Request: fold
Amino acid sequence: MSDLLIQAISQVFVFKVIMLIGIGTVSGILVGAIPGLTVTMATAILVSFTYGWSLLEALALIMGVFVGGVYGGCQSAILVNIPGAPAAISTAFDGFPLSQRGEAGRAIGIATSQSFLGGLIGTGVLAILAPPISHFALRFGSFEYFLLGIFGLTTISRLASKSLIKGLLSACFGIFIAMIGVDPVYGVCGRFTYGNTQLMGGVHFVAALIGLFGLSEVLAQIKLAQFKAIIPKAVGVMPKWSDMKRYFSLTIRSSFIGVFIGALPGVGGDIASLVAYDNAKRTVKNPSRPFGEGAYEGVVAPETANNACVGGALIPALTLGIPGDAVSALVLASFFLHGLRPGPLMMVHNPDSFWAIIIMSIIANVFMLIFGLSLSKVFSYVVAIPKNILMPIIVVLCVIGSYAIEGNIFHVWAMVLLGLIGWIMRRFDYSVGAMVLGIILGPIIDQNLRRSLVLSEGNIIAAIVGRPISLVLFVIIIVLIISEIPIVKLFWYKIFSGLSKKTHS
Reply:
């Protein structure tokens, strides 16, 4: 391990790689700070521009954007009460009241320092847990991978949409998009191509990601009203040592909440920050102010948790090849694009890349701390950029990014079509995130199901019952689906409400 770590350090500590991490981090913060833009959009667009890059250079930019984008949302949440990212929703509860009290600088300083600590703790847990999880996952066969893919789609379908049916339909549509093209197992026919030779290679997933997260977001933002905010001055942003010492126990608790929730497939930083905020409300006995009125603890907990969630989300992505949420799905897609194959064999075939990701994450967190504190005044002006200027620029980037994949105009048309589909899905509350996971996991589900059918000679029952891991995964999937049936939900609600009444009496 020490040799691998030294090798990874020598690869990462190159001027160009360090510079790309810095550029990615500040770009992620800028995108995250602008209301209406998301880190998923930034990652989807930037992935296309790294198409011809080396693996290390692409990883450097992407990890910087990932870390910076999750943090950036707190800037607008504190300054104008408009979270730049879903993960910063909880930060606005107390961050904006602090800004109204004239303490915007101190709130940003606390948010930045706590995001830095949460990011480091999340990365540390990733470094400790990923190798043993990968070792355990080496026991997985083709049918286990098929069930794992279904499990990932089921969990995110439940959480990414209010309706399980809509979530599953979105995921299935993503699988359908992934199956377009030449049959990957036998390679003898084109599926769903209808004689179009352009479709023989399938729909490129980068074009799909840009359309679904980039163009559809622009179309959704067009109808939103413009906001004119008076941006408060962010002065005195340097965090105080006394603050960090006072909230250290809350920082540790919130970090582990973020890591645990981030490691669950289908759960992201928005859930982690809400859970951490709720935990702080229940456990902090003497807050600096009442929660919701400018409590510093109300900024510490969510910002620590949502950045620790980055390391947690990479645990299933790197060890099992199963993304935890839409952002980690895009990061995973970028890894595949550059020839890296996350999963149990990553620690066997590409251990140096794993440790390079760990080091890049640490460096990105350091850059986040530096830029977050030194450029807070700049970010306060970026927050107020008018959308009639911003959105046309994003459309141009979407077109350029799609064309840059292979210099093929077909990818641009695919991006436009999927952008329109994504916009329609958003309007009718279908999950774009579940669809993207369907596109990413579709080939894994398709190929491993067919391999397992060949190995088991078509006996699905034997494939399930014959292996304990398959049986456990199958039971979990069935329980998850059944638990969403309205009658079952009502039944469990009555049981738990009855138990709580007995406990109180």
